[in-house]
Protein 1
Amino acid sequence: MKISKCVFPVAGLGTRFLPVTKELAKEMLPLVNRPIISYGVEEALASGCEEIIMITGRAKRSLEDYFDRSFELEELLKSRGKLELCEKIVKISNMAEILFIRQREPLGLGHAVLCAEPVCKSEYFAVALPDDVFINRESPVLSQLVKVHEKMGGTVIALEEVAPENVSRYGIVKSQFEIEPGLHKIIDMIEKPRPEEAPSNLAIMGRYVLSPTIFEILKEQKAGTGGEIQLTDAIRTLCTREPVWGVVYNGRRFDCGTQKGWLAANVRLAMDDPELKEMILNIVRS
Ligand code: UTP
């Protein structure tokens, strides 16, 4: 089945990146020359999605403005003969069909996903958490999940092997079996376990293809870790009803929801540009 919709929950408060996120949406922080959110949207489009649904909250207006037309700026650039730059700006607003839905209260990621029900209805849909920026130019990480869904049906989640001492930072899955290298049938999962209670070292990362059954489950879902309605808890219930697959993705991930991950992503991406690479190496050398 084709996955045409991708949901981006962006209503979180971004407390790990305070004080920057006091007034600034973390999704708008730059990675070299484009905001973090742009990388996720480009990945979704490259994976075959045609409609982008952003679940926004207060203080996230800048995301809507970024993907909107900016007539004054376009006219100003044109009048100054900066046509190439003007074209670049127009291209951003034509990039994708984007719909914005407000999550009125930040009740958790699960609740944010539920806000997409009026649009996704009974279709399978993708979810991308923009903090997780993946680099794999040949095969975008979301497309790796979409391929598994097309072949096996069901829900698909992105997995990464993490060091045992880091399991308590993630949702960790229990695999029933590995049907082929890197493709697991998931039967259970636990959010942020202590190392001794973790069922594996396979951590859930921010890309999903979800069954619409998740909406029914989320409506009944009680608040979990951190007092928030957790998506992991709902997928856990889903495992008991429908097939859930986990794919150990191929690519490199940066957690841009933290200062360290964001800085690392900037350095890594800048190294692709010969001029910036030279500049970074000079700074490090000196
Ligand atoms: P996080 O757990 O990373 O929370 O949310 P956060 O608020 O973004 O950041 P920290 O932890 O406080 O620094 C995971 C994803 O779920 C979205 C976030 O925007 C992020 O993309 N989210 C979270 C919502 O859309 N709504 C919520 O109520 C909570």
Note: The first helix runs from residue 36 to 46.
Protein 2
Amino acid sequence: MAVIRVELAGRSYDVVVGKGLLDNPQTPLAGYLRKQEIAVVADRNSHQFHGEALEAALDRFGVGANWFITEPGEGAKSWEVLEKLVEWLLSLGVERGDHIIALGGGVVGDLTGFAASMVKRGCGFVQIPTTLLAQVDSSVGGKTAINTSAGKNLVGAFHQPSLVLADTGTLSTLPAREMGAGYAEIIKYGILGDAAFFAWCEENGPKVIDREPEALEYAVSESVKAKARIVAEDERETADRRALLNLGHTFGHALEAETGFSANLLHGEAVALGMVLAARYSARLGYIPASDAERVAKAIGNAGLQTEISSLGLKCTGHGLSSHMMHDKKMDAGTLPFILLRSIGDAFVDRQVDMGDVAAFLDEELRK
Ligand code: GLY
């Protein structure tokens, strides 16, 4: 088991990573239970697979779970579901000093965290992420949001959880494709800031995907450590530090937009392709050797993720893809910051990227 502290003035908290945390009688969850019932938000899948284990954990402290269960998928990150959730929490009499629990993936965490940021001007919440992507990324760092007709994650708040319990045992029921999507965010930490961890991923990526317990726990805890460091340095993404976590996301966003943000391309799969493109584009600009870009592509491909956008069967041009980027929420005063590489393990923010050249580069990648 690893305990990683996210250091934030007045709002520090622990992320606990390990197998079987929900079954552990010493669970740190105990410190956040002050009434006989606690509100728990889950989707139908996380409730089905992990609801009993959480109820048993709460029962040891004489606490019952009061469930709010959503439909699985991004549809739950809507004004309608948020309103229902907030009204429900108020009807339960949730107070500012109470905690609510988010049991599920990134959708459940984002929705619950945003509701918690509003109820009584901000009540506490505990994240129990049950997908690999949520364990290594979205449950840590306090970004919460819903989607609106203008786009994804455009309305939200920074609201830090009080505790994150990342029980790697909950990943045993996760579909294989989602393991791959989560792994993209793991190898990202190596590519953007830790060459030694990248080399470890080159060697051990398939073991993580196969859920070998030691490799999985190591990968999740190293990822959380990296994220905790970055969030502590730049909680609100104002200093070009947290922005590095967007490596692969600008190219990936264009691919997700082109595929309709659908199950045809999961977010993590788009990020994986986006990181290959960011590495190849860094090589095109002369920042890294082409061989390093192909090393990134090979490591990502070894984990079973796609590395060539030509294999997606897209019917668009490079210009079409680059136009999607201009609607990215990362646009800043008319420029789009790109996260590029100075070397594997050293990413930086480039605000001078020529979009015409990006379109030409994407045309070449689409025709490969
Ligand atoms: N997922 C990117 C961030 O938390 O900043």
Note: The chain has two domains: 2-173, 176-366.
